[in-house]
Design goal:
single chain; alpha/beta; 4 domains; 8-stranded parallel beta sheet; 5-stranded antiparallel beta sheet; 63% helix; 12% strand
């Protein structure tokens, strides 16, 4: 995850580099833009309209405007402009828009004429210009490129403005020659009109020709289908078999329904008559023989009369006979019923009347059934006869309908295309380009842009360095990387050799010295607190080992500064160091008082002379092993002697890159302070990571001191 706060601090440290880069970029740009010439801009206006727009007020779509804009910027039109420019300059060398190239100047008049003819031929043929055109007798492409008439150079100075609201297209060109700017915009306007009219006109003519042939063919097929359909109708004598078959089918369904209803009535009437006959048989068994025989005779006569009535077509005379027989039978029945004690004759008469009525209805229904069956058979025969004719007629009608639809579609397409040709966009140059006023180059914009770009590049480079830099640049980052406590952070001091008396005597004149002194005092207090807890009230001194990650991190400076800080409190200090006298002397002056003797000699004599607050024992600086100076017991006894005579012993040990020697000194130390210099790297791949792990896990590690904080 990016630590933006640390990134900002890092960039702020190098703010003057960023500012300097921006200034340098601006100054360079200022020097370069002084020779920039004035420029001239010319603009030509083209009107975009159509016949439909003029007649009905319809507008032209935005898409058409964008298409025209792309046409102006196309390689086709820019190549045509290049040819026109070259032809102009070759024909008028004295008034050439651009000075001839050296290669053109070296050609003869015959060569110039041949080149002009070649350019003119290519322009008329609308041929595109490319590098491949250098393979001929003349380098046609290089001539155009040297004169800066190629499509890339022209297009970079060309601006096309379309305005669908006003119906105008503006072509704008900027150059150092006002006549060149005028020539370019007017030529481009003419070329756009010519190109658009030629391409759209020819394409529309071709489209109309093809569509006209399609319409003629579809019309011929339609007439053929109509003729075949009319001939078939005439041959079959049916104008519309489909309608006729539909009517026949409807009548068949109607008669089918009548037949089903008649069959239902016949079944119902026969059941009712059978029930009445059963009742009559029961009554007749109780009636007088004479009356019964006469009534039976009349019943037979009524049956015959009803049959004649139906067979003769329901004649009125037959109806009168039936009425007379029914009247007579009713009279006999009434007389018989008057003689019967139970009036059976009346019941019989009613039943017989009902029976005769039902028989009459049954005869009518059965007779109508015959006519229904006859008509139904006739309709079915006529319907079946129309089926083959109907299928063929439907096929011919379907073919005629499809042919008619295809003809109408083709005709509509033809009419639409024709309308498009009528309403096609019309271009006209309504405002030719004229020379514009001279415009001074935008020097301030170039200068500001160059300064901003230079500053941005410097900012980007510093940011990349920050992202890829594995160095530790502040105490908080060191705490995150090592996980150990940070005792203090010594501020960055410019001097490589510092006099401690000067540091202690400063009163605000040097903020870095004041911060350095404050950090040493804070470290002195923390170390004193720790050793006081460890040793209690004992008068025996303690041994503090100071080491660093690498050589040159400022370990000796910290050791001498800490010794001076404790000496300033009245403590007798012993500093064991391998540094040379020229390093120690500037740090500890004679005003403070210090004496120096060799550590090797002390191990032999076991005697040390204390005359000042700070005593220095110089150890061997060639990284000789401590254990090689004497056995462990002797060294331990020597340190016991030193502890009795000094309040605090500071060992300016070797750096952690010589871990084996650091371990030997650690065996006789009561506490460890490790120094880390700002900007040092901790790589997981090298040995520093493993050494850091070992020192971090050491039980006597008091913490880290960060050196060079900014």
């Amino acid at each position: 995850m990016i630590d933006f706060e640390r990134l900002l601090k890092y960039l702020f440290r190098f703010k003057w580099i960023i500012i300097l880069a921006a200034i340098v970029g601006g100054v360079v740009a200022f020097l370069l833009v002084q020779e920039l010439p004035n420029t001239y801009t010319s603009t030509a206006q083209l009107s975009v309209s159509s016949i439909i727009q003029q007649q009905h007020g319809g507008g032209i779509s935005q898409q058409q405007y964008e298409y025209l804009e792309e046409v102006v910027k196309s390689k086709q039109l820019l190549n045509a402009l290049s040819y026109r420019l070259m032809l102009h300059d070759l024909a008028h060398p004295d008034s050439s828009f651009t000075e001839w190239s050296d290669e053109l100047k070296s050609l003869s008049a015959a060569d110039i004429s041949a080149i002009s003819i070649e350019y003119s031929t290519r322009r008329d043929a609308n041929r595109l210009l490319s590098v491949m055109d250098n393979s001929g007798a003349f380098k046609l492409y290089d001539f155009v490129h040297d004169m800066q008439y190629d499509d890339g150079t022209l297009g970079s100075n060309l601006t096309v403005i379309n305005n669908s609201i006003t119906g105008m297209i503006g072509i704008e060109f900027t150059s150092e020659n006002p006549e060149l700017s005028v020539f370019v915009v007017n030529t481009l306007g003419d070329e756009l009109i010519r190109y658009y009219q030629s391409t759209t006109g020819s394409s529309l003519d071709n489209a109309l020709s093809v569509l006209d042939s399609i319409v003629s063919e579809k019309h011929r097929v339609l007439l053929e289908k109509r003729s075949r359909l009319a001939g078939y109708k005439t041959g079959t004598g049916v104008a519309s078999v489909g309608q006729q078959s539909t009517e026949l089918y409807s009548r068949v369904n109607q008669y089918e329904q009548q037949r089903a209803s008649a069959l239902q009535q016949i079944a119902s009437l026969k059941g009712t008559i059978q029930s009445i006959e059963q009742k009559l048989n029961a009554i007749n068994s109780q009636s007088t023989p004479s009356n019964n025989s006469e009534i039976l005779l009349l019943d037979q006569q009524l049956k015959e009369a009803n049959q004649r009535y139906v067979d003769n077509g329901f004649l009125a005379d037959d109806k009168k006979v039936i009425d007379s027989l029914q009247s007579r039978r009713s009279t006999i029945a009434r007389a018989s019923s008057q003689r019967s004690p139970i009036n059976a004759a009346k019941v019989r008469q009613d039943l017989q009347d009902q029976k005769r009525s039902l028989e009459t209805q049954l005869a009518l229904v059965e007779n109508s059934m015959t006519s229904i069956e006859s008509e139904l058979s006739s309709l079915r025969a006529r319907y079946n006869a129309t089926m083959p004719v109907d299928a063929s007629l439907q096929r011919y009608e379907q073919e005629e309908m499809l042919a008619n639809q295809e003809y109408l579609d083709a005709l509509n397409r033809y009419n639409d295309e024709k309308n498009n040709s009528i309403s096609n966009v019309r271009l006209s140059l309504v405002q030719p380009g004229t020379p514009g006023i001279p415009e001074a180059p935008k020097k301030m914009i170039y200068i500001a842009g160059a300064g901003f770009a230079s500053g941005s590049i410097a900012l980007a480079v510093l940011s990349l360095i920050f992202f890829f830099d594995r160095g530790v640049v502040d105490a908080s980052q060191l705490r995150e990387r090592t996980g150990a406590a940070i005792l203090t952070a010594l501020p960055f001091v410019r001097e490589k050799k510092i006099n401690m008396e000067s540091v202690w005597a400063v009163n605000g004149e040097r903020s870095d010295f004041a911060g350095f002194k404050s950090s040493l005092r804070s470290l002195r207090f923390d170390i004193g607190e720790v050793f006081e807890k460890v040793s209690g009230d004992s008068d025996v001194g303690n041994v503090l080992l100071i080491t660093s990650l690498k050589r040159g991190d400022g370990k000796t400076l910290l050791s001498t500064g800490l010794a001076y800080a404790f000496a300033a409190t009245g403590k007798n200090m012993l500093l064991i160091t391998g540094s040379e006298p020229d390093v120690l002397t500037p740090a500890l002056t004679e005003d403070v008082g210090f004496s120096t003797m060799e550590f090797d000699a002390f191990l032999v004599k076991r005697e040390i002379k204390i005359e000042d607050r700070i005593t220095i024992l110089r150890s061997n600086s060639d990284h000789t092993s401590l254990m090689e100076l004497g056995n462990r017991k002797n060294i331990q006894q020597a340190f016991e002697v030193l502890k009795e005579q000094f309040d605090l012993i500071i060992i300016d040990s070797v750096d952690l890159e010589h871990w084996s020697q650091v371990q030997e000194w650690l065996a006789f130390s009561d506490g460890i302070v490790a120094l880390f210099k700002s900007g040092s790297k901790i790589n997981e791949e090298d040995s520093s990571a493993s050494v850091l792990t070992k020192i971090k896990q050491h039980p006597r590690l008091l913490g880290w001191v960060f050196n060079g904080s900014k």
